[in-house]
Every structure is written in structure tokens, then in C-alpha cells.
UniProtKB/TrEMBL annotation:
Source organism of this protein record: Prevotella dentalis (strain ATCC 49559 / DSM 3688 / JCM 13448 / NCTC 12043 / ES 2772) (Mitsuokella dentalis)
Domain CstA N-terminal: 4-141, 153-463
GO biological process: cellular response to starvation
UniProt membrane topology term: Multi-pass membrane protein
Keyword Thylakoid annotated: no
Protein name listed in UniProt: Carbon starvation protein CstA
Subcellular location: Cell membrane
Cellular component terms (Gene Ontology): plasma membrane
Protein family according to the UniProt entry: Belongs to the peptide transporter carbon starvation (CstA) (TC 2.A.114) family.
Length: 504
């Protein structure tokens, strides 16, 4: 619990100190924001600060800081370091500056910002890349909440259909009609879930691994063979997989597609730090809580508190016969959410907590489709005040999404395939955003190291994954790491040459 407590405090201090420094670097002023200067009653609309914060938080939260943290917990307390350092020095900086840069560019979407600073070729590539990513987000965030909701009643297909209808309405209607009204309720559910689990942790004070712990078999209440981490680590080495698995709780390119939505709704630049930087820090706290709960769940037998005795005996019996699965195969991320919430918080608390987890992906899925509509409209120069012109974009977009969803549901490994490529695409989008922000800071003669360092790091992470992942080149890890070192040198050399030209 010491590492967990220190990590929570570090996130708060990071917001107060480093967040203030990043705000000073950008330099917000009193100029009119897009919500005031370009109000259209649909997408550009000033809203109260607390509501904008809630919407931003739910836009970026999704299942990432929950499912990603659960899967990232397999790496042990090292996940704490990535969540804390990644969130303070990379993710929150990424979200704040991308949001504020959009404010300064009349609410422009990410492809337009990339084009302004990295060139037209990068803009065209980012247009296709970001729309593809948003489509994957929408499809993934249809299926995962449906799996949780069906346990409360109904069928998976029935819930998928209901969620899709909601997505269409939320994408088409003015932002204050559905998103502005329901997000505060969803935010309460998600925050209640996180706070309730944190309280449980401090009440239980469970035996948890610390940053300085040796995660050997002697420190676990679960045999190493049953845990299954050896095979998992072999297939998913800590570098780069930890930095792709825990994305939304540390840094996520998806957030840069969402920040412009709220850049069109804030009424003062000076509110940017609590809204953009603050929402990311809050998300980091959610990820930290779930990572801690999951470490106890897996490493120290906390799962025994959340599963009935008969199921435990049957599971252990299968294992003893040599035919059972490891814990990593037995408990999927949605399954962990369900077992922990109902096991720790009771029936009503469990329902509200699961609702919070369900609300998170749904409220990211709807704004993903809304972002895609606006990005496409911006590229086509098609105004969106008219509902007919919104339909021009939305109809083909949702038909494509339905086709992708059908493929996912019919393919036995469809969800995992989309999720893994979503993880890589997500962080690659962060790479482009960070380089865009770095170019902006250089041109403004501001301290660019705050984005340059995370840009280089995430470039190496994404390139290494392409080299060693079985889904890509599948090279030997040694070769992959040598290749990533070469990528590091090339990235730094390229930037040095470009920066020298800027100084001439």
C-alpha cells in the first residue's frame, strides 16, 4: 500500500507543480475562445466549466484506464511508475497542449493541426489514420460494455443494438442535448466506482507488492505456474508492451481527437489546465486504483474473495489434473471488473460500479464517432449546422462501423485483434501529436523539451512493437531492441537537423 499511496500523492503534486509549469509555457490569455467566436448551437457552444470537465474526463476514460490497467497489472508494481510518470510528464502534457492548440486554431481537429505543423502529407495520412482509429474505438466500445450488460439481463446482440442507437443519436444531435445532459450522471457512476474501490483498499490494507518487492513465487499466495506470468512475459515483454497495454491511464493519442471537442466548448483559455490536464490526472488515478486492485486480485489471491468456493474448487481441480487454464486465461478484464465490483461493493454498489465501467466505454464510443464526423466534415469543408449535412457523413460512417462490428463478432479472435491494433494505433497517434506540439513550441520559442522527450520515447516504443510483435514483423527481441536504438538515433538526428534550420 505504500507504493500505491505515494503514487496517488505524486499525481496530485504533479498536477499542482508540473501542470502549472506547462500552463505557464503555453501562456493562456483572455482572447475569445471558439465557443464564443464561432458559436453554432451544435458543436461550438460554451458550457459550464464543471460540465466541460466531466465530458472531457468521460471522453478520454473509456475502458482504457480500467481494462488496460488490469492487463498492465501483470507486470507488477512497475505499472505504477509508468502510470505516474507517463501521466504527469507525457499524457497530461499531450492532452493539455493539444486541447489548447485547438483553441488557438478555432477548434481545429487533430489532422488539421498536424497539417499546419508537419505538412500536407502528414495531414492526409493523419486524416485516414485518425478516422480509422476512431472507428475502431467506436466498435470496441460497443462490444465491451455489451458483454458486461448482458450479465444483468438481455442478450449481447440486444445490448449492442441499443448502444448503437444511442451512438447515432449522440453523434447527430447538438452536444448539449444528450452528451451535456447525461455525462454528469455517467461521471458520477465512474468516479463512485473508483473512489469506492480506493476506500476498500485502505480499509482492507491488503498485502500488496511494492516497487521494491521481489515478485518471486515465495511472495505470492498463488503458484507461479497457476498465475501464468512466465508465458505472458515471454510473449509480451515489458518493453514495449507495458507502454502500449496501459495507454489511457498514462498517454493516449485518442485523447488528442477528443480534446478539440471541448476546445469548442470552453469559455476561457485559463480554464484549460483543470479541464485538459486535470482530466488526464483524474484518469491516471482511476488507472492506478485498478492496477492496484488487480495486483492484489492476481498476485495475492484476492480473486478468492470474489469467486464462489465451488468455482474456485473446480478451477483448482482442473489445474491439479494438468488440464486447467492459468489465471490470465481464466479471468478476462471484463470478468475481473464484474467479480471485483460485486465481491467488494455488494449487490447495489456492484451494480453502480459496473454501470460506471459500462458508462466509460460508451461515453468514449459516442464522442469517437462524433469526432470522426467533425474531422471528415473539416476535411470536406462541409458545414455541420444543417442536420442533412451531418447525415451525409454519418450514414456511410455507421454502415462501415456496423460491417466492422459484424466481422469482430463473427471472428473468434476479432475483439482481441482489434484491441491490440487499437493499442498500437492509439500510441502512434500520440507520437504524431507530440511531434506536432514540439514543432509548435519550437516555432513559438518556448521550452520544447516538455514534448520532445515523450515524443522520442513513444516513437521508440511504437517502432519496437512493430519489430518484435508476432502480429507484425515478429523479430527476435535482441534484434528488435537494436532496431529501436537505431530509431532513437534517427529521430534525434532528424530533429537536430530540422531545429538547426529553424534557428537560421
Amino acid at each position: 500500500m505504500i507504493s500505491f499511496t505515494i503514487s496517488l500523492l505524486a499525481l496530485i503534486v504533479g498536477y499542482l507543480l508540473y501542470g502549472k509549469f506547462v500552463e505557464h509555457v503555453f501562456g493562456p490569455d483572455n482572447r475569445p475562445t471558439p465557443a464564443i467566436a464561432h458559436a453554432d448551437g451544435v458543436d461550438y457552444m460554451a458550457m459550464p466549466n464543471w460540465k466541460v470537465f466531466m465530458i472531457q474526463f468521460l471522453n478520454i476514460a473509456g475502458t482504457g484506464p480500467i481494462f488496460g490497467a488490469i492487463m498492465g497489472a501483470w507486470y507488477g508494481p512497475k505499472a505504477y511508475l509508468w502510470i505516474v510518470l507517463g501521466c504527469i510528464f507525457a499524457g497530461a502534457v499531450h492532452d493539455y497542449l493539444s486541447g489548447m492548440l485547438s483553441v488557438r486554431h478555432d477548434g481545429a481537429g487533430l489532422p488539421q493541426l498536424v497539417g499546419d505543423y508537419l505538412g500536407k502529407t502528414a495531414k492526409r495520412g493523419m486524416l485516414v489514420f485518425s478516422v480509422f482509429l476512431l472507428m475502431m474505438v467506436g466498435v470496441v466500445f460497443v462490444y465491451s460494455p455489451a458483454l458486461l450488460l448482458k450479465d444483468l439481463g438481455g442478450t449481447t446482440m440486444g445490448w449492442v443494438s441499443a448502444i448503437f442507437v444511442y451512438y447515432i443519436l449522440a453523434t447527430m444531435l447538438p452536444i448539449d442535448k444528450i452528451i451535456g445532459k447525461f455525462y454528469p450522471i455517467f461521471a458520477f457512476a465512474l468516479l463512485f466506482m473508483a473512489v469506492a474501490l480506493m476506500v476498500c483498499l485502505f480499509i482492507k490494507v491488503p498485502d500488496l507488492p511494492e516497487l521494491w518487492s521481489n515478485l518471486g513465487e515465495s511472495n505470492r499466495n498463488v503458484p507461479a505456474a497457476l498465475l501464468g506470468t512466465t508465458a505472458y512475459m515471454a510473449e509480451n515483454p515489458l518493453f514495449p508492451c507495458l507502454f502500449l497495454t496501459i495507454a489511457c491511464g498514462a498517454i493516449s493519442g485518442f485523447h488528442a481527437t477528443q480534446s478539440p471537442l471541448m476546445a469548442r466548448c470552453i469559455n476561457s483559455e485559463r480554464h484549460g489546465r483543470p479541464i485538459f490536464y486535470g482530466a488526464m490526472i483524474t484518469e491516471g488515478m482511476v488507472a492506478l486504483i485498478w492496477a492496484t486492485v488487480s495486483m492484489y486480485f492476481f498476485y495475492y489471491g484476492g480473486w478468492r474473495e470474489c469467486v464462489d468456493a465451488q468455482a474456485v474448487n473446480e478451477f483448482l481441480g482442473q489445474y491439479q489434473n494438468g488440464e486447467g487454464k492459468t489465471l490470465i486465461q481464466f479471468f478476462t478484464a471484463p470478468n475481473v471488473v464484474e467479480k471485483v465490483c460485486t465481491g467488494w461493493l455488494g449487490f447495489f454498489g456492484g451494480i453502480l460500479a459496473v454501470f460506471g465501467v459500462v458508462a466509460a466505454p460508451i461515453t468514449s464510443g459516442d464522442t469517437a464517432f462524433r469526432s470522426a464526423r467533425l474531422i471528415i466534415a473539416e476535411a470536406l469543408h462541409l458545414e455541420q449546422r444543417s442536420i442533412a449535412k451531418r447525415f451525409y457523413i454519418a450514414v456511410p460512417m455507421f454502415l462501415l462501423a456496423i460491417a466492422l462490428l459484424v466481422w469482430q463478432m463473427e471472428n473468434p479472435n476479432g475483439f482481441n485483434t482489434i484491441w491490440q491494433w487499437f493499442g498500437w494505433s492509439n500510441q502512434t497517434l500520440a507520437v504524431f501529436t507530440l511531434w506536432t506540439l514540439t514543432v509548435y513550441l519550437v516555432r513559438q520559442h518556448k521550452p520544447y523539451f516538455i514534448t520532445f522527450v515523450p515524443a522520442v520515447f513513444m516513437t521508440v516504443v511504437c517502432f519496437t512493437f512493430l519489430l518484435i510483435s508476432p502480429m507484425a514483423l515478429g523479430l527476435n527481441t535482441t534484434i528488435g531492441y537494436v532496431g529501436s536504438a537505431v530509431a532513437l538515433v534517427i529521430a534525434c538526428a532528424w530533429f537536430a537537423v530540422w531545429h538547426r534550420k529553424q534557428q537560421q
